[in-house]
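Collaborator request, handled under Task 6.
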Amino acid sequence: MICEGFLVKGPSGPLVVPLGSSVVMHCYVDELLPLKGLKVIWVRTDDNTLVHVFQDYESRPDAQYQDYRDRAFFFTDKIKDGNFSLRLENVRAGDKGFYRCKVYTEHESEETLVQIKAVEHLMVSGSNRPISASVGEDITLNCSVDSHIPSEEIDEVSWRKTDKNEIIRVLGFKKNATIRSDESYRGRAEFFTAEIPKGNFSLRLKSVRTEDKGVYMCLVNTGNFSANTTAILEQLGFSFLHIFVLILCFAAFGSALVLSVLWISE
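Structure tokens returned to the collaborator:
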């Protein structure tokens, strides 16, 4: 049954969308509308930008404003059912704002507003507390990309150590490959490879040395955005095993000294 006197509906509230993801901006009617003379226009209200148009039984990407080309799409096969929702892909920070979905028939028009309230930027988190370790131990410096962005879309992750105004590259990740850096960390610094698809770029540092003490930064770059977190390695001491070995060394040295004195005195 085809009805007139329709009501256009949208989402129940504002949308919060992760940067770079896709979002569906809902716009629909409960009644079937005649396709003849049907026109749907999506417009960005703050600057009156044309996002997408459905007219003459088809989507009209040629009418879109350039910023939405290949990013905004109708669910074309659903339009006959009264679904005029729009899928917006690769969401950008500048997409935040109000959007109007206006539906025209041959006799009347109705509309609804959709708001993208916020676009979440790239977020990187790590450890809140400094890390203490003993010489020779293995430690983990935490770095997690707390966002929707898949690892294959991350341009680069770089672990760096700041040492007396000098930046030392510890380990890197670029184009789905690990990049080795400073010689002093070769064979000792590594990612948890199986965790990378989950956004975990924590650094495992093996056989810690006294000179490893300092501030480390995990820098993440993706598209036009970057974020970082820091980890502090402090209080590098000696493990029980090291102390035990030192005691044995001192004991052996003392015994040798006593024996040498006795030998001389004879």
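The cover message to the collaborator said: "DSSP finds one helix and 20 strands in the chain. The two ends are 121 Å apart (CA to CA). Please let us know whether this matches your experimental observations."
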